[in-house]
């Protein structure tokens, strides 16, 4: 799919930026793809084993590399079910660790069809492939402290849905999030002096609306802010992208928010659009 990625970048970011940064490639490859794009395409390698005739619609799409997306990977409800089933295995200590072996690596090397997109915190204790018991090519993951939405994050989510066929977007906050906690402390006038001259304030600004929305007298203001922050992210994704909104309204896509419990490993959905 290399030429496909290149074309889409030009369309999305404009020829000027793409020319200035010629090695950009969103999902696979980079400079190597640029070189490949200038050459005649080699014929696809033969598969190690024949596939059943009814199954390979998505794979055929990946190899044909059309200029537009193929069918969604799975129905949104099925995507949600897979995530929650994987989380249940993880919580109960029966993770299957699927799709992590060499054959899977080879299978997805030529193209990806992740069934879900996860926007979550960069926190080292919240790795999506582990907590949802998924593997290579299953999840399109965007991680940033405080799981906030900015243009780059939203563009990444749009790409995963429109071009890779993901049918579920989950904004996932987590218990005792340091980014949310730091924002609350800064708003209370107890910010860290070590954050002076950093960009941490810019991140906190994106989390501030959630912290301010916590009801007075909340039993656990930090946890309430974590859930509100994830809900806000889901709402911003919905409001900020007309193509995604259109897919939600036609039932092709779900955008949900959820909270991850650091203690027991459980993911609890909190809102869906
Ligand atoms: Zn966090």
Classify the helix fraction into a percent range: 40-55%
SSE-based structural type: alpha/beta
The number of strands is 5
Query: Low-confidence parts, pLDDT < 50 over ≥5 residues?
Result: 1-68
Shape: globular
- State the order of secondary-structure elements, H for helix, E for strand: HHHHHHEHEHEHHHHEE
Task: Give the averaged pLDDT, no decimals.
Answer: 81
Report the sheet with the most strands, covering strand number, pairing sense and barrel closure.
5 strands, mixed
Please indicate the percent range of residues in DSSP E strands (runs of 2 or more): 5-15%
Notes on the protein architecture:
This protein is of the alpha/beta class. It folds into 2 domains: 1-43, no CATH class; 72-272, Carbonic anhydrase (Beta-carbonic Anhydrase, Chain A, 3-Layer(aba) Sandwich), CATH 3.40.1050. It has helices at 2-13, 15-20, 31-37, 57-64, 76-92, 102-109, 128-131, 151-162, 178-187, 200-212, 221-240, 242-249; strands at residues 116-120, 139-143, 168-174, 254-260, 267-272. A 5-stranded mixed β-sheet has the order 2-1-3-4-5, with helices on both faces. Strand 4 and strand 5 (267-272) form a beta hairpin. Helix 10 (200-212) packs across helix 11 and helix 11 (221-240) crosses helix 12 (242-249). The protein starts with a helix and ends with a strand. The relative contact order is 0.12. The chain binds zinc ion (ZN). Zinc ion (ZN) binds at residues 121, 123, 146, 174, 177-179.
């Amino acid at each position: 799919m290399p030429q496909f990625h290149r074309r889409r970048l030009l369309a999305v970011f404009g020829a000027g930026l793409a020319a200035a940064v010629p090695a950009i490639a969103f999902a696979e490859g980079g400079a190597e793809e640029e070189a490949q794009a200038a050459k005649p395409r080699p014929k696809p390698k033969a598969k190690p084993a024949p596939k059943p005739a009814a199954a390979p619609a998505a794979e055929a799409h990946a190899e044909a590399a059309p200029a537009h997306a193929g069918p969604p990977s799975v129905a949104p409800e099925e995507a949600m079910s897979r995530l929650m089933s994987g989380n249940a295995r993880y919580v109960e200590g029966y993770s299957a660790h699927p799709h992590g072996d060499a054959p899977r690596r080879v299978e997805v090397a030529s193209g990806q069809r992740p069934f879900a997109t996860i926007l979550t915190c960069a926190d080292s204790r919240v790795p999506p492939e582990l907590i949802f018991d998924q593997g290579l090519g299953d999840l399109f993951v965007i991680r940033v402290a405080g799981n906030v939405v900015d243009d780059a994050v939203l563009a990444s989510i749009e790409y995963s849905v429109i071009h890779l066929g993901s049918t579920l977007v989950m904004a996932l906050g987590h218990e005792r999030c340091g980014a949310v906690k730091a924002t609350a402390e800064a708003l209370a006038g107890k910010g860290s002096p070590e954050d002076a001259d950093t960009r941490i304030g810019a991140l906190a600004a994106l989390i501030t609306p959630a912290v301010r929305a916590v009801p007075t007298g909340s039993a656990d203001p930090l946890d309430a802010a974590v859930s509100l922050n994830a809900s806000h992210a889901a709402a911003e994704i919905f409001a900020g992208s007309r193509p995604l909104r259109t897919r939600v309204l036609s039932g092709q896509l779900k955008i949900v928010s959820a909270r991850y419990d650091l203690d027991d490993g459980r993911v609890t959905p909190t809102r869906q659009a």
